[in-house]
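Researcher: I'd like a structural prediction for the single chain below. Treat it as a standalone chain; there are no partners to consider.
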Amino acid sequence: DFEKAPSGITGLETSFSLLYSEFVINKRMSLMDLVTLFTSNPAECIKLKKKGHLKKGDIADISVFDSLRETIIDESFFFSKAKISPYLNRIIKGTIVQVYKNGSVVFDNLNDKKKALFYKKVNIDLSY
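Model: Treating it as a single chain, here is the predicted structure.
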């Protein structure tokens, strides 16, 4: 069944924490440069208005990152169907603990409530 087939290797779910662990902690990149790579740079590339910056009047799409929390990348770490990763069983420093979409919480793992709140069907409107 096509719907049950794994979707390949996941990358987005681990990318920020892996880059933080390998580049920011090892002082190869600043935290601000990493944040820019995931926020304003993509928004500017695809010309999203009122996205990618924290400014009054902009849309509040925010990820809260806990730089002190260590996480093990295992199959339970992933939300996508694909559980394949070259980083399985690796400990990473830092993890996304909350995500806000248009100012509303769509993911909350702040208090170790693993996947306590997660709405998989977040409507993303790219018609800005």
